[in-house]
Amino acid sequence: MRPSLLNPLFAPITTLPGIGTKLAPLYERLCGERVVDLLWHLPSGVVDRRFNPKVAEAPSGKVATLVVQVEAHFPSSSSKRPYRVRCSDETGFLHLVFFHGREDWLRRQLPEGEWRVVSGVIEHFNNEIQMTHPDHMVPVAEQASVMTVEPVYPLTAGLSARMVAKTVRAALDRTPDLPEWQDAAWLARQQGPNWRQALEVLHRPDSERAVVEDSPARRRLAYDELLANQLALAMVRASMRKLKGRPITGDGSLRAKVMAALPWSLTGAQGRALAEIDADMAEPIRMLRLLQGDVGSGKTVVALLAALSAVESGAQAALMAPTEILARQHLATIEPLAAAAGIRVGLLTGRDKGKAREATLAALAAGDIQIMIGTHALFQEEVAFRDLALAIIDEQHRFGVHQRLELAAKGQAVDVLVMTATPIPRTLLLTAYGDMDGSRLDEKPPGRQPVDTRVLPLARMDDVIGGVARAVKGGARVYWVCPLVEESENSDLAAAEDRHRHLTQLFGAKDGNGRVGLVHGKMKGPARDKVMAAFAEGELDILVATTVIEVGSTCRKPPSW
Description:
Elements: H1 24-30, H2 35-39, E1 45-48, E2 63-74, E3 83-89, E4 92-98, H3 103-109, E5 115-125, E6 128-132, E7 136-139, H4 143-146, E8 149-152, H5 161-173, H6 184-190, H7 195-203, H8 216-242, H9 253-261, H10 268-282, E9 288-293, H11 299-312, E10 316-320, H12 324-340, E11 345-348, H13 354-366, E12 371-374, E13 388-393, H14 401-408, E14 415-420, H15 426-432, E15 437-441, H16 461-473, E16 478-481, H17 489-507, E17 516-519, H18 525-537, E18 542-545
Parallel strand pairs: 4-6, 9-14, 9-15, 10-12, 10-13, 11-12, 13-14, 16-18, 17-18
Antiparallel strand pairs: 1-8, 2-3, 2-5, 3-4, 5-6, 5-7
């Protein structure tokens, strides 16, 4: 139960003044849906508005707060020319410049003959001093409210700096003083602020030093976050240890058949990881283990052999992948090996419809399919296993904890194995994945080609294209992946389409070679499969793609770039 003292912090953001149904989604996209999320939305810098020179002394390029008298308005007769307001003090003249300014609003804000406080960046242009779109224009009585150190927050489209700052202040005003929870001796050694003071310093800074990354206030909040994270993980881990599992042990008969069908022997790392997984599955508590290994280190084979233990014990296993392409890639790898052991493997994706889907679901519920491979479609309510004992989740960072739990809920006391190709040092594994045990594949099967990784700036794009041309000329094939750079599938797709168009112009008609394909998540399944098959068969030399291809996509001759 959450202490009632925290209720104001966990209230919806719509309880703050001025946040209605129109603005709420923008704030939720920016930082979150609760009041406390605004407190964690920390400034990225400050604007110091305390510099208060006379007009003639205001240097170009510096933020200044000036007290001036409004002399005259000069509306623009053309939309291409700015609206100008002439102001002055005893030392000289200043022009306030507004593009697309509304005359009625500007005259209300800046009445002729009145004194006003204006704050913004000073510019010297054509021997005149000017300020374009002042950040503040207030009566002289409000000068003190302007001449402060303003925090600068990250923004999103539709929210202005002033709106976000005002909302954060409202959140801060309703923040209660909480009892100190850190160790008193540690706090005394740090000589830093308490939690409430740290928030005050960051959201109402008195200098730029207050908000820099190594400031005492930021260090305090960072320590709070790390400690809270570790305590939460410890609680989750303790809870997991209390959950009853069931011992899963196989007789090795199916595993032996698959091992005989493999064209190579397991590496030492694969053997060690498999032994760790077997030991976990044999215990009467639920397994939650992370299998980490680079691309090509053999995670899929280890996962298959672990699944066979579940099948040998009379149960079923499921392997979930984040994309249909990767799920089908797993099927292509696993199905021939499973066939050698007489094991039926199924595939379930969002593409499967009608009678074929119904037949697959019926076979799964009856236990005729012993290993089911799929995407998010495995979560659906109508998907039922006869006896799911092991859930394997590939590219686990693409799934949330709740999705992992949803799949595990398809059976009784299900063991969970999650896999990732992201290199995770042991210290980070313990810190960020403290609820999991970890196994690492630090060897690769013999015959794997070495990886040559290079990083080049965008300015050297011609060098990259030259390298692609040399690779294609030498008979190799090339992936050109346009990764997601912001949370927008449309921008991801646009980048891939632009690159495909550019490369097609360069390579598309050169002696019949240099053929360029494109795959992305919005393509129909059959069309995407056709392009991938053409690349795998060598009919295409360059494949431009969004991250939909994942790391499991292959071609017959490995690409060089």
